[in-house]
Amino acid sequence: MSVKTSSDLWWKNAVVYCLDVEMFFDSDGDGCGDLLGLTERVDYLAGLGVSVLWLMPFYPSPNRDDGYDITDFYAVDSSMGTLGDFVELVRTCRDRGIRVIVDFVMNHTSDQHPWFQAARSSKDSPYRDFYVWVDEKPPEKPGDLVFPDAETSNWTYDRKAGQYYQHRFYKHQPDLNLANPAVRDELAQVLGFWLEQGLSGFRVDAVPFLIEGVLDDPHQIIRDLRSYVNRRVGEAVLLGEVNLPAEQTRAFLGDEDGDELHMVLDFIGNQALYLSLARGSAEPLTKALSSYPKIPAAASLGRFVRNHDELTLDKLSEEERAEVFARFGPDESLQLYGRGLRRRLPTMLEGDERALRMVYSLAFSLPGTPVLFYGEEIGMAENVDIEGRYAVRAPMQWARDGGFTLPGVSPRRPMVEGAFGPERVNVTDQRRDPGSLLNWFERLIRRRRECPELGFGSLTLLESGAESVFAHRVDWEDATIVCVHELSGSPATVSLPVGDGERLVDLFDHSDHDLPATLQLEPYAARWFRVARTGVRLPP
Question: Where is the Glycosyl hydrolase family 13 catalytic domain (predicted)?
Fold first, then answer.
C-alpha cells in the first residue's frame, strides 16, 4: 500500500476522542453541557491533537439510559441545543482539522418513540412490525440479560398491545425488528440525514445484537449499511461496538477487502491488558493479541484503555476476572453486573502516574486507532456516588472550581470529589505545568500521528526475556517501530533484536542518541524506538 493510497484511509492514522455533550461544558449555566459549550472547547481538542470527535447520543430522549433511549432520530435534545448548533459544531471542527462521528443506536428506540406508540396501539398499524412481538414469552437463555441488576427478562408484556415485546437492554428500550426491510430503510434515511449535516461516520452501538436471528445471512445488514453510507459520503466510516471473541469480531470487518465495518473496538485486547496489569505479566496480553486473525488492509482496530461504560471483563474466565477484581476493585460497590468495574484508570492505579503513562503509551503503540474518553488526558477519576456505569461520566474538570458551569450552579451530575477532584485535577493547572499529564498526552498524540507505521503496519510480538515486559514491533513498508512496556512496576533487563546495519533510535529521548539492543528498564518503563537502517533517512 503506497503512502498516497493510505492517505485516503484517514481512520487508520486517527486519534479519536469520545465525549458526552451533557458532561463536557455548560455554556448557559443550566447545569447541562451543550453544543455551544462544546464548540467553545474545540480549540482545546485541536491543541490536544485529536483528529476525530465521537459524540455520545444528543438526540431527544427521556434520558432513562443517558440518551441511548431515543424518541426522535432527526433532532437535537433541547437541553443541549439546536440542529443549527450542531451544524456549527461540525463546521468549527472541520475548520480545526477534526472530523465528527456520532453514536448511532439502531437496535432499539425509547418506548416513548412515536413508532412504538403507534405499534402498540393496533396490530394493523404499519409500525407494528417495526418491533418484535410474540403471544407467548419464549424461554430465557442463560447469559442473555445485558443488565441483570435491572431486568429479569428480555420480554415485557404490553397490555395495550396484548403481546410481549423484545428488549435486549432495558424494558423501556424495545428492540427494532431489523428483519423488516421498512425498518432498515428508515434507519438508512436517518444515516443519510446526519451525513448531510457534515458527519464523517458513526459509532454503531451493540452491533452483534443487530443481526442476531435476522435474515439467512445476517451480516448482509452490515454490508448494506456500509454500502449505503459510502455511496452517500465516500470517506465516512462505521466504528462498531463488537464485544466478541477475536475470530467472531474479525467477521464484522468483512472479506479481505473489507466490506462491512471499517473499524471495531478491541474489547479482547482491552480485557487482557487489565489481566496483564493485575498479574504484572505480559503473557495474557500477548496471548490475546495473538488470537486475532489478519484484518483487511483498509480496516482498523480501535485501541482503548477505558470507555464510557463499565470496564467489562466478560470475556475473561471467572478466575481471571476475580484476579482483576482483587487488584483493581475488591469492594463490591466498585463492581457491576458481576462482570465489570465502574472505575477509571487513575483510581485503579492508586494515582501512580508512571503506571498511568505506561498504560496509555502501550495502547497508543499498538497497530490500530487510539480512542480516548474525555478526561483521560488529565487523569480524571470516577465518582462512585453516581449510579452504576454512569460513575465514569462525571462533569469535565476545567478549573479548580470545576469550571464545568457557572459558579453556584449544580451540574446535572455531581463532580468528582476528594483526591481526584477538580481542586487537584483540572485542565487549567495542567496546561501551565510542562511536566503534567495533559502536556505529556499532547506529546504522545503528536508522536503517534507522526508514526503512520502504527496505523498501517503489522504487529509482531517479541520475546523480551523479562516476564513483566510487553515487547512488540510494527512494520510498514520500509519502516519499523519497536516498543517495550514494563507492566509490574519493577526494574527489568530486556534484549531486543537488532539486525546488521540497524540501530534503535529513541522516539521520546530528548538527548537524541542511539541505544543498545540490551536495555535496563526502570519500573513502568514505556519506550518507543524507530529502527534506523544504513542508507535510509529517518523522519524527524
Answer: 18-405
